Amino acid sequence: MITQPFKVAIALFGATGDLSRRKLLPSMFHLFQEGSLKDDFAIIAVGRRDFSDDDFRKTAEESISANKKLENLDGLETFLEHVFYVKLDIADSNTYKVLNDKFESLEAEFDTGNNRLFYLAMPPQYFTVITDNLRESGVTDTSGFRRLIIEKPFGKDYDSALALNNQITKTFDEHEIYRIDHYLGKEMVQNIEVIRFSNSLFEPLWNNHYISNIQITSSESLGVLDRGEYYEKSGAVRDMFQNHMLQIVSLLGMEPPISLNSDDIRDEKIKVLKSLRRLGEKEVKKHFVRGQYDEGLVEGKAASKYRDEENVAEDSNTPTFIASRLYIDNFRWAGVPFYVRTGKRMKDKETKIVVEFKEVPRNLYYQAEEDDVLAKNLLVIRIQPDESITLHLNVKDYAGEKDTKEIKLSYTVAKQDLARTVDAYENLIYDCLNGDSTNFTHQEELMNAWAFVDPVNKVWENDAASFPNYQSGSSGPIKSNLLLSRDGFKWWDV
Ligand code: BG6
Fold first, then answer.
1. What does the pLDDT look like over 424-435, one tens digit per residue?
2. Is residue 157 part of a domain?
3. Is the CB of 423 under 6 A from ligand 1?
4. What's the whole-number mean pLDDT along residues 54-59?
5. Domain that holds residue 313
6. Dihedral of CA 388/329/457/17: which sign?
7. Is 244 labeled as catalytic in the residue annotation?
8. Same domain, yes or no, for 129 and 271?
């Protein structure tokens, strides 16, 4: 990361919320420790509570001190001197004058270049109220840059996302809007492009001639915790699949961009999302499997079923698991299934990609032994918890018991490299300050992703499932295995 001190005043809406405390404040503090924020910045925490600057600074100090990924707290006191609090009734445009006054006084005090960043770490129902009021009260009229970071969900379907966008773009232009998908801030997700486009080894094989299928798994061992109310409306499709999972698909599937410029990369990602085979309602059942967790044992501890979680209906039809078979209908990928699954309360917390290569055209080994076969060539990209790349190959078995044996060439990212940032959010806030929107979701990506998942939600929401159908601590419903076994594949547990 190039470290240069940015000039900016950041209005953090939802500053006392969970996301701000766990991720955003520690990330901003670490950017300060690294020198990306130095003298010319201010953070305006915006909230409803009757806090003084000092009250908020105490909260911020606690949140930052509690962050386990920070190696030390050097400079915390100075950082906090740049943090202020403004009480605002976000629904009342008249109160926004206070925010504008605060910006103006801090701009004079800290020489922030009149650059204003608005970070909405808020529930989605407030997005447009805030952007409208910012515009109407003149807070967005500034001679410096003005940028907006918003958190998902960006709508709940195609139509609502379009409406949301139409409203927000009354205040901010598309190039000023940074829609966060925190998976795009994960180093190993960013590494997908580097692995593909900086090695001559993979790109010639990266197509339907040599790859038989690609699998993406993002499993979580945790349940919905205290987010039942949100999750009931969202489910696994809107919470993980429409955004994080489809972003990974587009990075794996895209053509090499003509440059690393964000527009060039985005154009290629959009093409992948456009090429996803759209499913009619009848096909949803064939290509998608849904699940909801039952009781079970997770990491040795008893876990309750989803329907018993707080703020979840007793007869909830919300999927906590989704597995799917996607097709990218273009020359490169025609005929190669992308299997994608994500779910809560599963066996482990892990996110990984497995690229399975086709068999050699003619197998010279194991002619006589029916049970022995060559191991499949796999490229495994592990995104979390550890970050590694592993290539599975066949070599001569020196012990001589078999003709060949499988070996794994592996690279694991070193601990000190992982410690470079406290969180994916740090990368993304940095990028936004730098005016680089490559790792954010463009409106067209968003709309194409909704267009793809809308039929799935429509079918599932109108058809009660036999839930629960997988045990907590398992790998999800058995049916998700059938999705692959029918094609002659299996989920790789590697
Ligand atoms: C969020 C979802 O976007 O991603 C959560 O809303 C989910 O439900 C989280 O737990 C997973 O993120 P990570 O980084 O822990 O894999």
1. 999 999 999 999
2. no
3. no
4. 97
5. 184-485
6. positive
7. yes
8. no
